């Protein structure tokens, strides 16, 4: 198979033949200019099954935003043998193109999860089910996401610590954020909140549309400052920073794994789907994992620990398949119960309103058809131009509704500013990625095809509603059942409605009125007076847009917390030699995108592991020396 064919295979599942033509053009152009050679580090070595060892010191399950970090840091100890298992395969050069982020969903990079219908959200989606993309690839969801680098509010982490999790306050978190970071903005890099020299490249997009300037100015006109939203204050507006390196996506695989690909003590096995953790039911000691690879079941032992970094959906699924979870649920599927814990509970996610669109009368927005030009490809080949925009998101804002005290700097709504809208790809992919029905799409967006627009995605930062993940069956190949319970607590809806109002107010500022911006209504809400709370609620329930931040399903907490699954050292309660290090351990959802916080969790979790085992080895060595000297 040719190199071009290999990369195009990635997108064989895409619904639109037109999009495949565009991918073919872009792929051929990138390959012609050898963009992949711009990478400092080559692709990872996929260790064949027959070359895997029978046992390793550590087995890390999942090479995503946390697992890649953990594998890197553990393998820094040359005497420790580390195995990293990943169900997916490696990235392609198309996944590197920032503007194509939405197109990666529903490809083989994606687990293609869907929520269960709940009747009060996602009503414009097929069968009332939201798509929940999760990365099935080296780098995990850092390969599918929109690359935005945001950390959350200081109070988020101080709340974690106050809940009985010492060492997880903001001061500790900031240390680990900075440990990873290599910030390319010279001004930010000099501040106390950022750093250079880490594995993870963070930078501004190299291209900015005229609409971005209007977004920042509109924020000022509403009384908000233009500031670093990862710095001293969170309320305000900002030009988006992201995990982008020389104009291309910087996933955690690219950042943390490629530079160490030749470490002899690290083995990486792709297309290795872990089905369960091996646990002695008598001693409750985890001693290895079972995984499926090329149609065969394999088992590998861990002499020190198994680290579960499979994410907020897959980690609870694997725990439950291994006999760790709610007793009644496991018994229902005839899975022997080893430890009765609230696995799968405490599910939280960021939800917002998709399609909050404003049409304009100048050709300044991002439309897909304008991007696929020789000029755009040439600019991307040198790391510049509109193809470097992070999924179309150019600006970020954190704002305060009437439900919070603005002086406390703990905003409750986030805006993603997009210099385009759901119709800006002419229906090629975002419609499919979001799972919108043909009927809703045609009613709402068909008449706007080809028209310039911008949109805001107002997001509820700290939902009170809690969801649940349950097993569908005892077959590990069956996807779990996902119940997000969006808006189960009506206060969430009330808060998000206020966020929509702020978005409408932004569109009416002089900065945007210069483009003669006008609101695009939802015809399915025409039976309600426009611009009322009820109208906005109708919009939200129809186009309920998750931004793919599920967390909390293996909650971290002290021993007296009956809902906790792991302790503050990330050890699974009641099980020895098993830890969870990923988004599922978050007690509460952070007030921002979750990729950077999960990388931070990976960094801190790896340090916890190293400190524990280094102390144990040092103690054992001292005891041996003492015995020898008797």
From TrEMBL:
The Glucose-methanol-choline oxidoreductase N-terminal domain is annotated at 135-158, 311-325
- InterPro entries linked to this entry: FAD/NAD-bd_sf, GMC_OxRdtase, GMC_OxRdtase_N, GMC_OxRtase_C
- Coiled-coil parts of chain: none
The membrane-spanning stretches of this chain are 20-38
Sites binding FAD sit at 137, 274
The family database entries (PROSITE patterns) matched by this protein are listed as:
GMC_OXRED_1, GMC_OXRED_2
Q: Which UniProt keywords apply?
A: FAD, Flavoprotein, Membrane, Transmembrane, Transmembrane helix
Q: Which cofactor does it need?
A: FAD
Gene3D superfamilies reported for this sequence = FAD/NAD(P)-binding domain, Glucose Oxidase, domain 3
Name the SUPFAM superfamilies for this protein.
FAD-linked reductases, C-terminal domain, FAD/NAD(P)-binding domain
- Family under the similarity heading: Belongs to the GMC oxidoreductase family.
Extract the PANTHER family matched here: GLUCOSE DEHYDROGENASE [FAD, QUINONE]-LIKE PROTEIN, GLUCOSE-METHANOL-CHOLINE GMC OXIDOREDUCTASE
According to UniProt, the name of this protein is Glucose-methanol-choline oxidoreductase N-terminal domain-containing protein
Q: Which organism is it from?
A: Cryptolaemus montrouzieri
């Amino acid at each position: 198979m040719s190199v071009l064919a290999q990369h195009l295979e990635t997108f064989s599942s895409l619904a639109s033949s037109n999009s495949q033509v565009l991918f073919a053009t872009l792929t051929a152009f990138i390959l012609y200019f050898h963009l992949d050679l711009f990478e400092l580090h080559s692709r990872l070595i996929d260790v064949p099954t027959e070359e895997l060892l029978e046992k390793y010191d550590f087995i890390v399950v999942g090479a995503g935003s946390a697992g890649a970090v953990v594998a890197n840091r553990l393998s820094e100890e040359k005497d420790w043998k580390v195995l990293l298992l990943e169900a997916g395969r490696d990235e392609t050069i198309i996944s590197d193109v920032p503007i194509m982020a939405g197109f990666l969903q529903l490809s083989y990079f994606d687990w293609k999860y869907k929520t269960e219908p709940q009747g009060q959200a996602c009503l414009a989606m097929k069968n009332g089910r939201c798509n929940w993309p999760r990365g099935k690839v080296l780098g995990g969801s850092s390969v599918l996401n929109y690359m935005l680098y945001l950390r959350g509010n200081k109070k988020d982490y101080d709340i974690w610590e106050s809940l009985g999790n010492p060492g997880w306050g903001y001061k500790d978190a900031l240390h680990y954020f900075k440990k990873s970071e290599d910030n390319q903005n010279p001004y930010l890099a000099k501040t106390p909140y950022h750093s250079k020299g880490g594995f993870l490249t963070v930078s501004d997009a190299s291209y900015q549309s005229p609409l971005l300037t209007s977004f920042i100015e509109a924020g000022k006109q509403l009384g908000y400052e233009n500031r670093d939203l990862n710095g001293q204050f969170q309320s305000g507006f900002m030009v988006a920073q992201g995990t982008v390196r020389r104009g291309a996506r910087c996933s955690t695989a690219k950042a943390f794994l490629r530079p160490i690909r030749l470490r002899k003590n690290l083995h990486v096995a792709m297309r290795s789907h872990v089905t369960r953790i091996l646990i002695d039911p008598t001693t409750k000691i985890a001693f290895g994992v079972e995984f499926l690879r090329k149609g065969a079941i394999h088992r590998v032992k861990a002499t020190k620990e198994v680290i579960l970094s499979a994410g907020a959906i897959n980690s609870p699924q694997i725990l439950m398949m291994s006999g760790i979870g709610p007793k009644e649920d496991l018994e229902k599927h005839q899975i022997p119960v080893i430890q009765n814990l609230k696995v799968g509970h405490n599910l939280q996610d960021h939800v917002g309103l998709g399609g909050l669109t404003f049409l304009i009368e100048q050709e300044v927005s991002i439309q897909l058809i304008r991007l696929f030009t020789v000029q755009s490809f040439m600019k991307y080949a040198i790391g510049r131009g509109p193809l470097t925009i992070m999924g179309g998101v150019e600006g970020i804002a954190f704002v305060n509704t009437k439900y919070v005290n603005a002086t406390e700097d703990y905003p409750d709504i986030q805006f993603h500013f997009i210099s385009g809208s759901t119709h800006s790809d002419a229906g090629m992919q975002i419609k499919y990625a979001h799972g919108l029905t043909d009927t809703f799409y045609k009613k709402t967006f068909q008449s706007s095809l080809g028209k310039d627009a911008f949109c805001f995605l107002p997001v509820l930062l700290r939902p009170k509603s809690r969801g649940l993940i349950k097993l569908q069956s005892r077959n590990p190949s069956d996807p779990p059942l996902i119940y997000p319970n969006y808006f189960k607590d009506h206060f969430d809806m009330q808060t998000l409605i206020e966020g929509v109002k702020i978005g409408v107010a932004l569109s009416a500022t002089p900065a945007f009125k210069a483009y003669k911006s006008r609101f695009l209504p939802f015809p399915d809400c025409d039976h309600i007076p426009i611009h009322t709370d009820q109208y906005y609620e109708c919009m939200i329930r129809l186009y309920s847009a998750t931004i793919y931040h599920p967390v909390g399903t293996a909650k971290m907490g002290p021993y007296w917390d009956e809902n906790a699954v792991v302790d503050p050292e990330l050890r699974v309660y009641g099980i020895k030699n098993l830890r969870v290090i990923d988004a599922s351990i978050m007690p509460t959802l952070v007030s921002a995108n979750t990729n950077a916080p999960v990388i931070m969790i990976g960094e801190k979790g790896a340090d916890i592991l190293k400190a524990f085992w280094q102390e144990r080895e040092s103690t054992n060595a001292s005891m041996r020396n003492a015995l020898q000297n008797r």
